[in-house]
Amino acid sequence: MTTASLEFLNKLPKAELHLHIEGSLEPELLFELSKRNQIDIPFKSVEEVRAAYKFHNLQSFLDIYYQGASVLIHEQDFYDLTMAYLKRCQEDHVVHTEIFFDPQTHTERGIAMKTVIEGISRALKDAEQEWGITSQLILCFLRHLSEEAAIETLEQAKPYLEYIKGVGLDSSELGHPPSKFTNVFKSAKALGLELVAHAGEEGPADYIYEALDILNVSRIDHGVRCIDDDNLVARLIEEQIPLTVCPLSNTALCVYDDMAKHPILSLLEKGVCVTVNADDPAYFGGYMNENFMSLVTSLNLTEAQAKKLAINSFNASFIDDALKQKYIASVEAL
Ligand code: HPA
Ligand code: ZN
């Protein structure tokens, strides 16, 4: 069994399916935008920002993450943010990405839905032309806000549905179960959108059942708490329901205190369709290949396991079958 090397991972084509674009805002760009838009941030230097990125749970991260997003004002800001992430995709050989965005974080500050979607989408188009990276956009509802607010957000997105592949659910999980959003997910489904939801990150395995059985999602974001319920793991294997797992996020937010205890590879070996993703790379210490490397260092990830994770990422994606098969063949050819 050959342990995967960085050189091998750099050649491995991959899809990223769990990436919050606001979570790719690096401290350098945060500072540049705070100056450009004259928005005060409570930090004096890039070093001070990085020092503040010490989290003890999901909420302690979200408080800083929403504050960071306040420097995003103009269409060009969303373009620059997205382009910086896509450049990292190109470097890490991420050939397809399905990007989350949180419109409510922006519309609540008076930024138009149009500004957000057009800025992100223009970068996606340019990156496809320049590097051949394919992509899709997933609109996330903030679960700490009401379902009425989510319904209003879906309404505001209706003129831009050509840019949006699906909807998701993120933000503070505990106390905000998937069932709170039953109606808005039903409406999204009726619009032909794909459905995903964060579940079982900090919340219990029950939230994963709710996401599957009440929201009817086809993919679970995080989902690592499934390990508490053998019947659930058996179902995930049987139905090949993908989990978009985020290793460095899970250790940064203390879901696991040590990467050596992370269950991703034991789930992989059991036959669960797990994938590797960065979640919020600017905050959690790394992009796609740094997440893979953390599995090499702590769990001795092999080349065969890395290839399986990459194949899973394409199988779990929302791309059409022909392109999916083309990407999978390029992994198998390695
Ligand atoms: N969980 C919930 N909400 C989020 C996350 C996450 O990992 N990242 C950005 N918003
Ligand atoms: Zn996430």
Provide a descriptive summary of the structure in words.
With 334 residues, the chain is α/β, with parallel strands linked by helices. 51% of the residues lie in helices and 13% in strands. The radius of gyration is 19 Å and the shape is globular. Bound molecules: hypoxanthine and zinc ion. Residues 18, 20, 170, 198, 221, 279 line the site of zinc ion (ZN).
Task: Quickly list its features.
single chain; 334 residues; alpha/beta; 8-stranded parallel β-sheet; 17 helices; 8 strands; globular; binds hypoxanthine; binds zinc ion
What structural class do the secondary elements suggest?
alpha/beta
| Cα-atom radius of gyration | 19 Å
Global shape: globular
**Largest pleated sheet:** 8 strands, parallel
Bound compounds, each kind once, are:
hypoxanthine, zinc ion
> Widest sheet: strand order?
1-2-3-4-5-6-7-8
The overall pLDDT, averaged over residues, is: 98
Number of strands: 8
How many angstroms does the end-to-end distance come to? 15 Å
Which stretches are low in confidence, meaning pLDDT under 50 for 5 or more residues running?
none
Strand content: 5-15%
Q: Helicity range of the residues?
A: 40-55%
Q: Helix segment count?
A: 17
- The arrangement of helices and strands along the chain is HEHHHHEHHEHEHEHEHEHHEHHHH
In short:
This protein is an alpha/beta fold and 334 residues long. Helices cover 51% and strands 13% of the residues.
How do the helices and strands line up, and which of them pair or pack?
Elements: H1 6-11, E1 14-20, H2 27-36, H3 46-52, H4 58-68, H5 75-92, E2 94-101, H6 103-107, H7 113-131, E3 134-142, H8 147-157, E4 166-170, H9 182-190, E5 194-199, H10 205-213, E6 219-222, H11 230-239, E7 243-245, H12 247-252, H13 264-270, E8 274-276, H14 281-284, H15 288-299, H16 303-315, H17 321-332
Parallel strand pairs: 1-2, 2-3, 3-4, 4-5, 5-6, 6-7, 7-8
This protein binds hypoxanthine and zinc ion.
Residues 20, 23, 58, 170-171, 198, 201, 249, 279-280 line the site of hypoxanthine (HPA).
